[in-house]
Amino acid sequence: MNAISKIAANDLPLLSVRQLDKSFGARTACRNINFDLWPGEVLAVVGESGAGKSTLLRCLCGDQQPDLGQVLFTRRDGSISDLYDIPEPERRILMRTDWGIIHQNPRDGLRFGVSAGANVGERLMAIGARNYAEIRRTAAIWLERLEIDVARMDELPFTFSGGMQQRLQIARNLVTQPRLVFMDEPTGGLDVSVQAKLLDLLRSLVGELGLAAVIVTHDLAVARLLADRLMVMQGGAVVELGLTDQVLDDPQHPYSQLLVSSVLQI
Amino acid sequence: MNTAPVLIDVHKLEKSFHLHTQGDVTLTVLRGLDFRVTAGECVVLSGPSGAGKSTLLRCLYGNYLARSGQILVRHDGTMIDIATAHHRTILDVRRRTLGYVSQFLRVVPRVTTLNVVAEPLVHTGTPVESARAKAAGLLTRLGIPERLWHVAPQTFSGGEQQRVNIARGFAVDYPVLLLDEPTSALDPENRQRVAGLIEDAKNRGAAVVGIFHDHDFGSMVGTRWFDVQPIAKAAA
Ligand SMILES: Nc1ncnc2c1ncn2[C@@H]1O[C@H](COP(=O)(O)OP(=O)(O)OP(=O)(O)O)[C@@H](O)[C@H]1O
Ligand SMILES: Nc1ncnc2c1ncn2[C@@H]1O[C@H](COP(=O)(O)OP(=O)(O)OP(=O)(O)O)[C@@H](O)[C@H]1O
Ligand SMILES: [Mg+2]
Ligand SMILES: [Mg+2]
To answer: CA–CA separation, B68 vs B72, rounded Å?
Structure first.
């Protein structure tokens, strides 16, 4: 038995996307997208503005029903379902527990009316945690892990800097120990030193927790640092998908070559 | 007669670059290349600048895509074809079998030198503490003073960064090691230290393929030369 069949027998993809299409009126945002994502794997999605990256991410995470195609996911017990075939409440639970969604703008991912601690604790309560002291303790652990001063746990998120808000959003998502995390430009809008800190944290968390992730980014250096594989999108279609270093160092498609040659050094 | 196991077996490798954004030129760099390396050998690639030495190493690592041919690498006792293997297989081969050391350290912001070196070992499942102990041993052997271990190597000198890079590349006892001018910025004393590491790798049965600017260094560590010559350029 060769290594490929060994792998295939031992674990299933966490997510399988088949012939996914999504249009807005006459405008095609995603066209015939196919790929698999395995446990622990980080996939970066790059491409020009309007290429369909955010739309794809929304279709993958349960926020936006595609027009055609399937988003198949494997549950912890090994059973496989189509994300848009399961009842809405089940999909909501999945999105709140097994998956994490980190938005570019913390306003879309945090509740600004409640404290930082409550933002983190809320996700635990959503999966049935009721012991207040326990919830608070777990929330504190995650704030600390994301390098947020626990003394500021009871402050409202608007008193935090952009980088802190982004880290709070990540803590809120990771507290339920998801297996898969979706991120849309998680470092966009932050200045470079803050970005570096966030990236370093993401990198070690992904490694330690064995998280799978789909990360939309316009920054090829971010992709190089975080991702096992790189997907290049243009005009709603995937034009190249391969090992990150291969796509960056030996791009095959004309658009990938253009993208890579447009930046100074990655 | 060499009876050591074959760890790298390349058949009829062809590599070309199709440059879409530069006038649609096709540049063929390697054609019909056969190449075989057994355990305990250190094969030194020679040939003029631009001949395709680095390209060959990168194809072996799966960093460049082969156009055709086979790139077999022994992994867990099976020959895996890097040219066609599933991406997860290639990542596993890189994790446990194939080491690759280039000329430059790719620094990750905020990661300390000790962790930069220990990281590949941790990824093979070695406990963090023993990985760090091995990393410390390598850094000592390569003359990186202990006061530098707990800072990120971003601000280090070229030679220091290169030694950190070598330590990282030798952290795992890879069965196959690919070295692309890893010693270009090192003084004679430090080159000697690297020669010692390569010697140890050969002695434990690793197959090493290296490109070294310095001919004397190549003669010292190499068991054989392999010449890479430019092929006639094919037009588009
Ligand atoms: N809700 C919507 N209604 C109408 N058109 C939409 C909607 N969402 C996206 N689109 C269109 O779909 C296309 C893809 O948009 P998408 O936001 O996915 O691009 P993107 O790759 O994320 O771009 P950017 O890098 O600028 O964020 C665009 O042409 C966009 O105008
Ligand atoms: N990613 C790439 N895209 C396009 N062309 C490339 C790429 N990598 C290498 N080449 C071309 O392939 C040829 C061989 O390059 P390579 O770097 O393998 O040479 P080399 O023998 O290692 O030379 P040197 O001794 O100068 O390092 C060169 O003409 C180079 O321009
Ligand atoms: Mg977008
Ligand atoms: Mg070279």
So the answer is: 13
